[in-house]
């Protein structure tokens, strides 16, 4: 049976959400509470935005499933010889476009340089009425981070709004390092954002 079913999908906003000025990004503690409250079991794949899917390795290797979903573009957030080593050649018989990100799922990994290239890949595909499947090993941390970045960069959502939109249909959980990098992206995208002082950052971590 389809995992999509009749799930409600978020409606893309026509404009940027209205934020109080100066914009004050939520703390890591607040972000964790939003992400980890009332979690549900994670399915192999879910549509989290119109024509945008997040899933796990099992679906990434299931060409029949990908074909049935109508996937035209694949973003592998766990690419590499020692991770999920698929690549364009693996999908050659499907005729899909492939983009690989060799990200490690640990808090020290710098995923920030991949935010914009991944967002551009997703946006370009959706602009052409394609269907994008974003995955990592479990479809929770790395893929979740890149989809949140897309919604923030290309759809003008705040980080909190992006998390809420995705969680309507899938529970994700970027690790603490990725969350902080997404938080910094959130601040950089808000011209009226207020940077936390060192004292505030220390207080938040304590």
Q: Give the full name of the CATH homologous superfamily.
A: Protein tyrosine phosphatase superfamily
Q: Which second-level CATH architecture applies?
A: Alpha-Beta Complex
User: Can you list the strand order of the major beta sheet?
Assistant: 1-2-5-3-4
Secondary structure tally: strands: 5
Mean pLDDT comes to: 87
GO cellular component, one term: cytoplasm
Domain Tyrosine specific protein phosphatases: 112-170
Pfam families: DSPc
InterPro entries: Atypical_DUSP_subfamA, Dual-sp_phosphatase_cat-dom, Prot-tyrosine_phosphatase-like, Tyr_Pase_AS, Tyr_Pase_dom, TYR_PHOSPHATASE_DUAL_dom
Describe the fold and architecture.
This protein is an alpha/beta fold. It has one domain (43-192): Protein-Tyrosine Phosphatase, Chain A, CATH 3.90.190.10. It is built from 8 helices and 5 strands; from the N terminus they run αββααββαβαααα. The chain has helices spanning 28-36, 57-60, 63-69, 115-127, 142-155, 159-167, 176-188, 198-205, and strands spanning 45-49, 52-55, 73-76, 97-100, 132-135. A 5-stranded mixed β-sheet has the order 1-2-5-3-4. Strand 1 (45-49) and strand 2 (52-55) form a beta hairpin. Helix 4 crosses helix 5 (142-155), helix 5 (142-155) crosses helix 6 and helix 5 packs parallel to helix 7 (176-188). It is globular and about 50 Å long. The model is unreliable at 1-6, 15-20 and 194-201 (pLDDT under 50).
